[in-house]
Amino acid sequence: MAFADGDSSSSSWDSDDEYQKFIQKMNPPRITIDNTSCANATIIHVDSANKYGILLEVVQVLTDLKLIVKKAYISSDGGWFMDVFNVTDQSGQKIMDESVLEGIKDCIYKSIAPGSCFLPSRRRAIVEPSSDYTLIELTGTDRPGLLSEVSAVLTNLDCNVVNAEVWTHNKRAAAVIGVTDRKSGLAILDAERLCRIKERLRYVFKGRSRDAKTTVAMGVTHTERRLHQMMLEDRDYERYDKDRANANPIPMVSVVNWLQKEYSVVTMRCKDRPKLLFDTVCTLTDMQYVVYHGSVDTEGPEAYQEYYIRHIDGSPVNSEAERKRIIQCLEAAIERRVSEGLKLELSTGDRVGLLSDVTRIFREHGLTVTRAEVATRGNKAINTFYVRDTAGSSVELKTLEAIRQEIGQTVLQVKGHPDHPKSPAQESPTRFLFSSLFRPRSL
Questions:
Q1: SS3 of 31, please?
Q2: Which of 277, 354, 366 is nearest to 68 (CA)?
């Protein structure tokens, strides 16, 4: 494969020169969709004037639309960006609905068109103002019961959790939590109260350790993108559990230099899973590397990714320490989303203190949360938890049944336990057996 030499000047990524703006305006993105060339995938072609971070923006859109990238071919040398993605829906089928296809094209175009609001990830400016809720970002040392303690503090401070995502990796934890005032249902604006919330949460998140960080912002952000940034900044890749090798197969990541073309070649092999492409591209972008060429293949159980990269200043990897850091950071990016634990899905009427009560029950039964996704849709709470025994053992069936008895048999569903019977596909709402815990409280 022969590649043309790219522009090695870092100014090409940062320039606000009117000529660069003119080039982008005269060459708007072209997104075409081909449903005839491939028998088992829809092919999306993206052509655009090149700019820093554009690959991540496109991959982020595909990920947010819940499309599965089976193959990808990347070329962004010089001033032009050309990408081809073979995608399917979550069931592995081609996308045939014309309205859906038009929606995909529209979303990609809006994300990369001239005047689009995206900014390079390295500037960390991905928060947009919002009055709907207040964002709280937390990083610190992971420990059993941490989410329970955090949610209890927020409840005691009259905060309602409307959405949250929590990741843990290598004994580190990061969380992005959206909260509103319990009484008004709006974002919290009072500076003194926000300061009090920050201090209380920093104290809880710090635990016995001295390194914890709490940030409060008014706005909305791409949560998963922000979590990658937070854990990268927290250097979770440097902290390895003693039993890391036994928990999951370690990804195979290599970095070598192609001196003739002054590229560094990154290759990755690991078990395929959803959002893997987003995780690796996000991390390379946040580490200030530019992907000039690449290919992705996820046909089968194993995923293969190959990227020809340079640092944003135009240089390839120039030291052994830098090479090792890239490998460690990509391994961490792949592992962060790998859920160690049993999946539990909770669906019930939302109320203040719900998250605190649920996580307290988990803690009281000896379970720790390794990852969590908390969302509110209308008046309903839709939450997903990955839990495991605090001793590292698999969760016993009797423990699960005790928790479900306390929370509600149809409120909490168990996914993937080998000894747990599958839940009925659907039950009438009149048969839901709610415990008193989940009856709405008078506010």
A1: strand
A2: 277
